[in-house]
Design a protein that fits this description.
The chain is 76% helix and 0% strand. It is an all-alpha fold.
């Protein structure tokens, strides 16, 4: 994954993604560089339009909606507890004047 990030850094900086540049970015990030892997990665990126790949990448937005029902469920539980306490308090008052 760090090879992809290094390529993205080079791309964002407007630099050519080549073996030397990729190796330098990885070394700067204190990542152990595998030269064969760098060479294969650069070869795999050849002919790929990175801007188009970024635009067409699917970004899941599942996390945000999943959190909302949990918050609502917690609110309902709290409301229920408050209502139960109010009922208990009313029951106690009615016993005093009963």
């Amino acid at each position: 994954m760090e090879y992809v990030y290094a390529a993205m850094v080079l791309h964002a900086a407007g630099k050519k993604i080549d073996e030397g540049g990729l190796s330098k970015v990885l070394q700067a990030a204190d990542v152990q560089v595998n030269e064969a892997r760098v060479k294969a990665f650069v070869a795999a990126l050849e002919g790929i339009n990175i801007d188009e790949a970024i635009k067409s990448a699917a970004v899941p937005a599942v996390a945000a909606p999943a959190a909302a029902p949990t918050a609502k469920a917690e609110e309902k539980k709290e409301e229920k507890k408050v209502e139960e306490k109010e009922e208990e308090a009313l029951a106690g008052l009615s016993a005093l004047f009963g």
